Each structure stands twice: as structure tokens, then as C-alpha cells.
Amino acid sequence: MDFEVVIGLEVHVQLRTESKIFCTCSTTFGAPPNTHTCPVCLGMPGVLPVLNKKVVDYALRMAIATNCRCNPLSQFARKNYFYPDLPKGYQISQYELPLAEHGWIEIDVGEGETRRIGITRIHLEEDAGKLIHDESRPVSYVDLNRTGVPLIEIVSEPDIRAPEEANAYLRKLRQLVRYLGVSDGNMEEGSLRCDANISLRPRGREEFGTKAELKNMNSFKHVQKALEYEVRRQTALLMDGKEVVQETRLWDPAKGITKAMRGKEEAHDYRYFPDPDLVPVEVSKDWLEEVEKDLPELPDARRRRFQEEYGLPFYDADVLTASKALADYYEACVKGFPNPKIVSNWVMVELLRLLKQDARDISQCPVSPDALVQLLKLVDDGTISGKIAKMVLEECYQSGKMPREVVEEKNLVQMSDESALQEVVDKVLSAFPKEVEKYRAGKKKVLGFLVGQVMKETKGQANPQKVNEILRKVLDG
Ligand code: ADP
Ligand code: ZN
Ligand code: MG
């Protein structure tokens, strides 16, 4: 039987505000344990949480960018459960009235093709603390620096149809939170976390099958692998006439399998109720408009504009708009050197290669847009050859110098002077009489060899076009 895969993702994004969601404690990562805490985030009795407005601002940015409808009134709710990393005995979250609902994003499913994935809701909540297990002794420690760090939870509709699509969806979310500057979106460091729900159904049937929920994947690759494993596991069960059990399963990255962790908890297990300490969140039209006005151009729109305005192929536009910083860099270069495709080639091929070698981000690039523009102008006006320019770029990248400086220091100016070139050509021709003979006998391909010799003689500095012309004149004339 042929099964269709159905996936829905629940993604938690840590918002990078300076202070926590309900107190003024710092959210800075890496401080000594329990130093970023106060009576509010420690859950002491008698204190009151106060909502950080910036958290709502950031969440609204994401809600607008994912085409959600923002509710004018939303409400915090207590989600009750016991765990040692949760000092209050409940997590402040949103339940019946979330901040935003009914959105969608487009994911990329092949060259220029997209598919729309529904967003059920985006709600606000606080993070829990962190347990640290001692490997050598049977004890655990708790660090509450993370309690009260702001999160948004983004719940997708069960619209995803394959593990690769789940991967594409997560990439899109990460790209968005980074463009919007609301999170660093780093999955390995836990600022983006994903629970994946997956079920199978016979192809053509409308009704969904029983799902399993997968946890503990801390990279894009692991999400995809866990889902792929789960497709195989559930397919085997159903083929055998058995049933999928609704449960939470843990991904074991070492073994490459998922393991049953616990039965599925239901909403009523959490005894959700509106938090009496917090007034409802009111989002006025003015507030929404203000947030919307400040949004940067979003990645999909920017990619489309790069294709239209600069005439770039999809591939180039996609690579260059991967991050806001890279797209900004590219556009700064095009302003100074208005040949979009040439700039694209240099940024995409040469610059990204250098950056990749050092695992650097474009924001750490030692070559400024001004420097790259200067380099391209030096090639354009014939001062240096394209080949020399690659060398100069590398030198600029290593030293942080401007291209003109490097060209002058290393005396790399291209030889275009006719009489100087004529001299070298004469020298080469007398050194290779056999090749000259062959050329004159009709083997025109030898010309390439002779050009190469002149280039070699001038250490790559001869203007190859000029060399070609002079050689032809002498040989044909
Ligand atoms: P629960 O009641 O278990 O919390 P929800 O309906 O709230 O389930 O959905 C949680 C997540 O699971 C959502 O992302 C949703 O898209 C996804 N989901 C729901 N049903 C299925 C299913 N049958 N197969 C795969 N994913 C599903
Ligand atoms: Zn605090
Ligand atoms: Mg649910």
C-alpha cells in the first residue's frame, strides 16, 4: 500500500530581548548558574510578573511576517506540571487566546517552486530552567538563568508532506527570524527548537492517521533523519496490519532511531487556566501598524526583486538573499558598480568561497563593498586582468587593504603598452620557431600556446586581448 506522510511542526524560538519576559533579569547566555535570577523568575510567592513590551514587539514582527492575523486581545494562561526546572510549578504560556493565528509561509521545494504551509498559531511563553546531570555522581543541578527567557511557539498546520519539506520549513523560519532580528535562530544552541508530529495515511484518504511526536533533535539534519526513520517505522507497522501508538518519542542521534518516551499527554492534563496575575495583552491597530512599518523587506520579496530588478537567475537571487547582511552587501556593491551579474559572480563565487574557508559570516568580511567595487573598476578599466584581480581580492581579504594599494605595492598593473608587449612577443616567437611554423602551416590552435607563453613571460600581467592582437598581426602579416 502507498502511504502519504503528514507532518506538523511545533517550533520554539528564543527571542533575543535584553531582559526576560516578566522581570528585568538579563537574558545573556553563559553567565554563572543562577546569577540571572530574581524573586519573579524564581517563582517566589507574593511577586507579580510584568510583561516586557519588547517581547510582544518581536512576536508581532514574526506574526506579520508569517501572514498571521494578530488578535486584538490575547491572554496568558498557566500550564501546570511538575518538573525540577520549573520553580513555579506552572509555565506561563498562552492557550485559548493566542497572540496570532491563521498564517502561512511559502517553502522552497525545488528551483523556484514553492508550497504554502499553514501556520495555526503563534503564542508567547516563558522558557524553563536547565537541568545539569552530573555524569560521575547520581545528582543533578538546576540552573535557573533561563527561566523566564521569552519564547514564541509557532505551530504549523499538518501541511508538510515529506521530511525534506520539514527541513525547508525550518530553514524558512530561521531565515525569517534572522531577517527580522528577533532571534539568532541557532538550532544547535537551542534558540530554535522543534518538536515534530508525524503520521501516515493511505494515499487518497482524507482522514489523518495516528501521529507520534518526536523530540530531542538539535539540528536541521537530525529533524530530517528522525522523520525519515519514523516514516520507515510507521510504514512497517501499518504494512504489518499493526497500529501506530500515539506517543512522544525521543530521537537517539547516536543510534539513529526514535524511542518511546511517554504516552501522549492531553491538554486537560495541564489544567490550563487564565493567569490571574497578568492582564490580557491588548494590541491596538496603531501598534500593529508601527511594527509593520519597521519590518525590513522580507526574504521572498527580496529574492523576487533581485530577479526582476537586477535580472539575476533564480539561483543567484536565492544565494544572495539568504541573509539580510549578504543581500545588503550585494546591493551596496551594485550601487558602486552597476553591473549586477558581474557583482553577483564575484560575491557568490570568490567572496563566499573565501568566507567559507574561514567559516566566516558576511558581517565579518574584511573586504568592504567599497573595496570590492574598487577592484571591479580596476578590472573594468583594464588596470588589472581578471586573473590578477582574484589574487588581489585574496590579498585584500587577508590583509584588509584596499585593492589599489595591493596593486601598487605588488606592481600588478596590467601591461597594455604596445611597444613593451611587442618586445615580449618578439622574444617568445624567436624562442618557439617550431610553433610559429605550425601556425603558419594552418594549425591555428597554436596561438593559444603562444599567448600563454607571453602571459608567463609577463607573470600574468600582459593584457591578453592586446597580446592576441599583436601575435596575430605578426604571424598573419
Ligand atoms: P495535540 O492535540 O496532540 O496537541 P494538535 O492538534 O494541537 O495536537 O497539533 C499539534 C501539532 O501536530 C500541530 O503542528 C499539528 O499540525 C500536528 N498534527 C496534528 N495532527 C497530526 C497528524 N495526524 N499527523 C501529523 N501531524 C499532526
Ligand atoms: Zn528575574
Ligand atoms: Mg495541541
Protein traits:
single chain, 477 residues, alpha+beta, 40% helix, binds adenosine-5'-diphosphate, binds zinc ion, binds magnesium ion
How would you describe what is shown here?
The protein is an alpha+beta fold. It has three domains: 3-290, no CATH class; 295-409, no CATH class; 418-476, Arc Repressor Mutant, subunit A (Orthogonal Bundle), CATH 1.10.10. 40% of the residues lie in helices and 20% in strands. The chain has 15 helices and 16 strands. It has helices at residues 53-65, 163-180, 220-239, 285-293, 299-310, 314-320, 324-336, 340-357, 369-380, 386-399, 403-409, 418-431, 433-440, 446-457, 464-476, and strands spanning 3-14, 69-70, 73-74, 76-80, 90-94, 100-108, 114-126, 130-133, 140-143, 150-156, 192-202, 212-217, 247-252, 257-263, 273-274, 281-282. A nine-stranded mixed beta sheet has the order 2-6-7-10-1-11-12-13-14. A three-stranded antiparallel beta sheet has the order 5-4-15, with no helix packed on it. A hairpin with a 4-residue loop joins strand 13 (247-252) and strand 14. The longest helix has 20 residues, at 220-239. The chain starts with a strand and ends with a helix. The mean pLDDT is 93. The protein binds adenosine-5'-diphosphate (ADP), zinc ion (ZN) and magnesium ion. The site of zinc ion has 8 residues, from loops.
| Structural class label | alpha+beta
Query: If you compute it from the alpha carbons, what radius of gyration comes out, rounded to the nearest whole angstrom?
Result: 30 Å
Q: Which stretches are low in confidence, meaning pLDDT under 50 for 5 or more residues running?
A: none
What is the mean predicted local confidence, pLDDT?
93
How many β strands by DSSP? 16
Question: First CA to last CA: what distance?
Answer: 77 Å
Q: Strands across the major sheet, in which order?
A: 2-6-7-10-1-11-12-13-14
Helix-residue proportion: 25-40%
Main sheet attributes: strand count, strand direction, barrel closure: 9 strands, mixed
Number of helices: 15
Q: Return the domain count.
A: 3
The percentage of residues in β strands lies in 15-25%
Hetero groups in this structure are: adenosine-5'-diphosphate, zinc ion, magnesium ion
Net shape: elongated
State the oligomer: single chain
